[in-house]
């Protein structure tokens, strides 16, 4: 379940178990302010990619704030604005609600904290805050440092099967969106523009093909320094597509 709050030109959504001490609309609005975070966070860092993704600690929680930006030609023209009547105008709320559903199904995804839509004329800006997954690294980092074991490939595939069984269509399944923690548990992140649907075998194989391309791309851009062979992927694929 979720709760919506309105403040001036902004709308917020939070989970029912929202535990941060920012309950009013004005307080929620500050939670999405980088100036407020810089002044009050115990720790703050930024990740790359399109736009800024802020990692910070506040009120005893390790959090991630991400703003949604456009890519391609529209990104150069509109940057962070989404036409209010377009199909992708509510990307933050869509991802937030999907994460709530996936958490309720027991799937290993980030815990959603809050999302924000900010209206500017006929356009919306989108933001989301999630909890950090601690003591983990994405697969691109892992294969730059060591081989994944056969058991790890199988566990990654088995985890993806859980998502497939629930009909989750991940539109950007790649090695940077799969995490391994120090206990060997597997997590999947970045559910922007993803959805639950009736998945066919072709859909699953397309997602796995995209994942394989990202492994091979990492090998190319590291001049074959990454620890991966395409033959290793068979274990992952077999586990992901198991009956």
From TrEMBL:
> Its annotated pathway?
Bacterial outer membrane biogenesis; LPS core biosynthesis
Q: Which domain of life is it from?
A: Bacteria
What InterPro entries does the annotation carry?
KDO_kinase, Kinase-like_dom_sf
Tell me the keywords, alphabetical order.
ATP-binding, Cell inner membrane, Cell membrane, Kinase, Lipopolysaccharide biosynthesis, Membrane, Nucleotide-binding, Transferase
Q: Which GO terms describe its cellular component?
A: plasma membrane
- For this protein, what reaction is catalysed? an alpha-Kdo-(2->6)-lipid IVA + ATP = a 4-O-phospho-alpha-Kdo-(2->6)-lipid IVA + ADP + H(+)
Biological processes, Gene Ontology terms: lipopolysaccharide core region biosynthetic process
Q: How does it sit in the membrane?
A: Peripheral membrane protein
Compartments in which it is found: Cell inner membrane
Query: In the Enzyme Commission scheme, what number(s) does this protein have?
Result: 2.7.1.166
Instruction: Tell me if Secreted is a UniProt keyword of this record.
Output: no
Q: Where are the catalytic residues? A: 172
For the protein in the UniProt heading, the enzyme class is transferase
GO MF annotation terms: ATP binding; kinase activity; phosphotransferase activity, alcohol group as acceptor
Function recorded in the entry:
Catalyzes the ATP-dependent phosphorylation of the 3-deoxy-D-manno-octulosonic acid (Kdo) residue in Kdo-lipid IV(A) at the 4-OH position.
HAMAP family to which the protein is assigned, alphabetical: KDO_kinase
Q: State the similarity comment.
A: Belongs to the protein kinase superfamily. KdkA/RfaP family.
Q: What is this protein called?
A: 3-deoxy-D-manno-octulosonic acid kinase
Q: Which gene encodes it?
A: kdkA
